[in-house]
Amino acid sequence: MNIGPALRILGAVVLTAVPAFASGGGAEIADPAAGWDELWKHFLIDVTLIGGVFGAVALYWLFKYRADNINQVGTGPTITRAQMFGWALIPAFIFMADDFYLAANGWTLWNTYRTVPKDALEVKVTGSMWQWNFEYANGVNSDVLKVQAGRPVVLRMTSDDVAHAFFLPKYRVTEDLMPGRITYLWFYPKEAGKTYVTCVQFCGASHADMSADVEALPAEQFNNWLASAGAKPAPDASGGQPAPAASGEQPGGASGKAL
Q1: pLDDT beneath 70, residues of the chain
Q2: 91 contacts 106 by C-beta, under 8 angstroms
Q3: Total domain count, the chain
Q4: Residue 178: which domain range?
């Protein structure tokens, strides 16, 4: 039995799967949330097709080879050695190729999640029972995560007490927070809008109440919010100068140091 074509197909699938979720050329930002949705869609299609095929075959055999009476004993068909290997190896190669395809795409997506784009807005996140605190590089502190729409955001996170987990359902990303350790995640709020963050690691009696609002604001509105909060706005990702703070206004926050 010649299995060369099957091996060539398997190799082609594996080699072409890696760039499937790669971002476009130039400075385009690869949105991990979109990649997650695409991978999940592929997974559901695969599970549905494979389950449907197996279910249909099982039902066909169930009715075709059903016994007419309780004393009837069936006999199995006689197959050649080539047929035996074919029935065993060809389905195995098909399923392995599909698994490798999904695994390669998942690995590519993981790399996207862990590679922070340039010019990302950096925010320090501190979790404690049972609240979130967001500190910006210029010293502003807030219990609402406000970010600039159209600009990637990287969160440097730690915990003051126990383990927490920062989950942004809309942006398909989560990461643990641990005392004495800094972890990170990034997301891409393409458009202005509101969503929420919640803790998904049990952290005590009020764990279910540990959530906060997340607001993606247009650039001008975001800078105005920073100014009204008592600090100089951070530079825009495009390199433009931030709007000046009001006259006589002093920077807020405790340190204003870089994260």
Answers
A1: 1-27, 230-259
A2: no
A3: 2
A4: 121-228
